[in-house]
Amino acid sequence: MKQTILVTGGTGFIGSHTTVELIQAGYNVVIADNLSNSKREVIGGIKKITGIEPAFEFIDLCNKEATREMLQRYRIDGIIHFAASKAVGESVEKPLMYYRNNITSLVNLLELMPEHNIKGVIFSSSCTVYGQPRPENLPVTEDAPHQKATSPYGNTKEINEQIIQDYIHSGAPIKSIVLRYFNPIGAHPSALIGELPNGKPNNLIPYVTQTAMGILEQLTIFGNDYDTPDGTCIRDYIYVVDLAKAHVAAMTRVLKKDTAALEYFNIGTGRGNSTREIVETFEKATGVKLNYTYGPRRAGDIEKIWGDCTKANTILGWKADTPLEDVLVSAWKWQLKLREDGVM
Ligand code: UD1
Question: Does this model's pTM top 0.90?
Answer without folding.
Answer: yes
